[in-house]
Specification:
CATH architecture: 3-Layer(aba) Sandwich
CATH superfamily: P-loop containing nucleotide triphosphate hydrolases
Largest sheet: 5 strands, parallel
Number of strands: 7
CATH topology: Rossmann fold
Strand content: 5-15%
CATH class: Alpha Beta
Helix content: 40-55%
Structural class: alpha/beta
Order of helices and strands: EHEHEHEHHHEHHEHHHEH
Amino acid sequence: MEQWPNFFIVGTAKAGTTTLHEYLKKIPEIYMSPLKEPNYFALEKIPENYFRKPIRSKEKYFSLFNNVKKQRIIGESSVNYLADSKAPKLIHQVSPNAHILISLRDPVERVYSEYFMHRRGGHLNPIFLEQIKFELNNQIDYSKHNIGLTKGLYSEYVKRYFSLFGKNKVKIIIFEEFIKHQKQTVEEILEFLGIPHSLTMFDEEAHRSFSVPRNRLFQLILGNITIVNSAAKFLPQSSRTYLREQFLVTKKPKPKMDEDARKILINYYKEDVEKLKHLLDRKLPWENFSN
């Protein structure tokens, strides 16, 4: 049966979308795609040569929802839908009444987190400042490993969803608030989706600490897209997290960000953060932009 989702978690990357996806799939009234990041509607930001192959077949996309039973909310999560200029319109064409969930994170901290995600796999310049300068001074092919500076220019991305779906159909989650108040945030999302649900039993997930591969072999495993994609296909998120945390990586204190790099990033994002504040009509708990 052809059935388009009516709920989309659209990003941003490194802002708790996986945790939100896992929480919501446990709610009986919600069906979340067993595959996170199908990227079906991301035509611009997910070119055909992208390292993680998107779903392009309508039949294969619909198959993600074959096990829907009586759930009223049918959802999927693809963080690339946020920055992709075509995705909002494509989603709206097939699901105009969809609920949209957007999670945003301090763009300076978000890009630093993405940098280390790629570094764990042995990619990118080992010096964060040099990676930033390289991406600012070069036209980066989105299909290559990079830290995605433009992903943090949120205001235009959010505005596109507001204009198409209406503010009442778009919920904004601030990552820094979510990790402090997870149960409350999930209950607010359920209210937004029209699912009154008191979470009497709720296990908060600890915010993932900084980690590095235990050795060069494990770094190669973490950086191998074929292995990563195969694991995502056959193992649930909880099992992948357990294997990674218990065997492949070791926890260490997160390196402090180079202050020159921080200043460059703050300057790069500050105008857009001001636009976002006005768009959302609220203050944002982002220390990098507190002044």
